[in-house]
Amino acid sequence: MDFTELEAVEGLRWPWNAWPSSRSDAASLVVPLSVICTPLMPLTDLPLLPYEPLSCSGCSAVLNPYARVDYRSALWICSFCHRKNPFPRSYAGIADHNLPAELFPTHSTVEYLLPYKNTNPSGFLHNSFSSSPSFASLTSSISSASVTIPSPAVAQAPGPAFVFVVDVCSAEEELRALKNEILHVVANLPENAMVGLVSFGSMVWVHDLGYAECSRVMLFCGDRELSSMKIQELLGACHFLSQQPIASHSLQKQGFLRPVSECEFNFSTAIEELHNMSDTIPEHHPLRATGAAISTSIALLEGYSPTSGGRVMVFTSGMATIGPGMVAEIDHSKAIRTQRDIVNGNTSLYVKACNFYQKLSQRLLDKSLVLDLFACSLDQVGAAEMRFPIETSGGLLILTESFESEQFKRCLRQIFKHVGFDHFDMNFDATINLVTTNGVKICGALGPCMSLKTKNRLVSEKEIGQGGTSSWKMSTLTNKTSLAFIFQVGDNQPNNEPGPVFFVQFKTRYRHGNGSIRLRVTTAARRWASGARHLDINAGFDQEAAATIMARLAVSRAEDYHARDVIRWLDKMLIRFTAKFGDYVPEDPSSFRLPSGFSLYPQFMYYLRRSQFIDIFNYTPDETAFFRLALNMQGVTGTLIMIQPTLLPMPVLLDISSVSPDVILLFDSYFHVVIHYGSKIAQWRKKLGFDNDQSHETLRKLLEVVEMDAEELIEGRIPVPKLIKCDQHSSQARFLLAKLNPSVTQKTRLADGSEVIFTDDVSLQAFLEHLQSLAVQG
Q: Which CATH number does the domain 3-141+426-541 belong to among 3.30.70.1560, 2.60.290.11, 1.10.10.650, 2.60.40.1670?
């Protein structure tokens, strides 16, 4: 079974593509019943339907290809709850030879372009597309081969809002590089995009972009925690838009958030006037009111753009040392918290900062706002404390060494990538709702979302991640954002066996980058594996998706347990898994075999338990937060690269034996792309200059191809990987060596010229042998 082909149709990956119908059988699978969903994955042949969907009056499931249709009675029977629903008059022409797109067998996923209304919670104005076209008016353009539907005009509305929050304690050269990048971004914004500027040091400056006579700012004390209402009152907002939709005359009342077409000159002037304003004294950190600046920026968007969504983009080069959210004292002698401090609970500032930012996360979700953090510093800035609101809002956490780095510049420009000429590849104000067959209950979700606490009969009492709900909110979604949903089956009573299949429907409502409101509906069907069909469980196992689910579960446990305990849990789960699905003679490790579809799973677990997501030794809390947040947003392909990096150009073993003096290796760990030159290659290139010698054209082309392949890996990826070029035995070769299987160490017998890894870690082979000996013990 090709699981990637299924994903290209549904946007889903299932660790188990056939489910047992009893809870005890499901528990014995070890890897939970789950789905990795990429809600907005670009799909082939995705119809866009300019009318509202038909929903079941019983369970609210949307009409889909699995529904049974009674053409004579003009009824459809819901595949989830089996309730009969009448078709409206607009479907009068429906017949088995004249189907709407949502009933085509090949369209398990469709997208609806919803009409705008005056009461739309997203705040858009009423437009000419006030009533939905009927199915009957569209049947002439629908065929079984393709669906071509005219797109209605999109109402003119304010574009997304961006508040740039700039740390003026940054060094002058760093600040200069940052200002240039922000100006470059703003110059390429659509004219209807809203922009604001907040700068901060020990104080917080909110810049008035609507006042042209001179520079004017509203000043806030950085050491105080003001309520959102108080900040809005001081800014003159006072929710004056809360009683009416956003309109151009209302926006004229303030100057702190303006359309870029009206304030580009003032914004540029304000940015240019920012200079280093650090009021530090020797042996002390600068006074940074990062938390107050973020809270003020959120209040700005809450007041002036209460329903249109937006991003608070924080650019900082140091830790918060004053006011709400502070993570360190200003005295150099009092260091910022470490991993050990957090584990031992010696972090009063850490706890206070986390509580402060958790409060902000609810404010962000209420108004569909996103928090992004660009931390460009060699030291920590407090990203670990900010992780929760960043992740739940779907924001980005970027750690680089400098605002002058190519990595930072590429990342910022990638975020603001245009689609066409009029909008970004950004989607806001998303909610996802699940409907399941009776007997399938929802435990929760793992990823960049927040529970809406909408409990119903589909929700399990067992909560995992963001649980206790069948609906989740996301301030933003990209076409790569993935969520992991965990399920539980109920024990079926005698004489109440389930049918041959079960269904799960994913309904994702969001605001598209062009301003339109859309609803994507994916309806998936999978088989129950009971009785004679029990072998379907093995045939439908997706070991790559299973590794992704276990990685998210392990990261979730790592928030509450020590790393050693998480590794023990992973080992315990792996032993149970291999004991169940392995073929062996009891007490005989040499007889152990795993089916071909399961053979890579133990290898994935070996690299996961050694990864920076679990083994946090030698990583700062900020780095750990960065790695874990990135993993929780990625789909199967990206997660596997993070867990088990790849060696290219030709796939070779991720093993120390692959390192050789006459070999160039291209290593991709998702966060780093390393071009590793063998010692002979490095000598030819550096000392002998063969790469510039026409008589060694083959070597020159080889070097060029490797660099082109590295650029191809980096292109379009967020966070942008750091590109490292290193020679064998150089210091930066550690980025490669740390991830290789240590099949040859200082403790093994060495062959002449073999590369060695100095480590106490066990090799993959030793790990698998030990696993087999434990699995066969029953």
A: 2.60.40.1670
